[in-house]
Amino acid sequence: MRRIVACLALLTATLAIAPAARAVTCRDIDHEGNAYVICEVDPAHEDLRLFRTDENGNAYGHFGPLKADLASKGKDLVFAMNAGMYHEDRSPVGYYLEDGREEMRVISGPSQGNFGLLPNGIFCIGEGWARVIETRDFLARRPRCRHATQSGPMLVIEGALHPRFLPDSYSRYIRNGVGTSANGDRAVFAISQNTVTFHEFARLFRDVLKLPNALFLDGNVSRLYAPQMNRADLGRRMGPIVAVTEPAQ
Description:
Helices cover 18% and strands 34% of the residues. The protein is α+β, with helices and mostly antiparallel strands and 249 residues long. It has a 7-stranded antiparallel beta sheet, with helices on one face.
């Protein structure tokens, strides 16, 4: 009996000090003949935030330098994705807020390229929540974000596809984006494995992931860092990066 009690005590102690399961979950998904990887983050329990430059002001550009910098501070990079459009110097095209510090103002008027395919939107990370918000709505509501990045176009707006998406479009790229639940308790990131149209990509968020709002992040430099999927994509240098970090184990 004493031996059983001792074993139970040891098991309880082991469980108490065992690391908690990571809440970022990634998986493959197929929809209408297209392949995607989706990664779901719980903003209430995960350290979800944006990164762009190190302490010396140098743009990370790739996942590797960010991972190394975090490791020097006792942190692990457990998920990352490119997070919005940027200029040649890796500075953000639209609104960018990191740790409460604004680097670029909101761009609400017409502009060039996909970013200017209005309406565009802002991915806002608050205290325990994350939401995709259409830009004009963002300016009207002024939510309290800790981190925020503006990109475009919106993919899904209050349950409706962007009005300018064409079902028979010939424009196909590897694309990535993020969608959120209405109350901000789910943030789901997706990247296509093959080239897709805007209409196909938006339908993934609306019809499969059941998210009322979703935002396109990019289509030329779409990349993913997800160790559980054996992904650490290389390619062109990035600007903003959205990531989840945890204390090193």
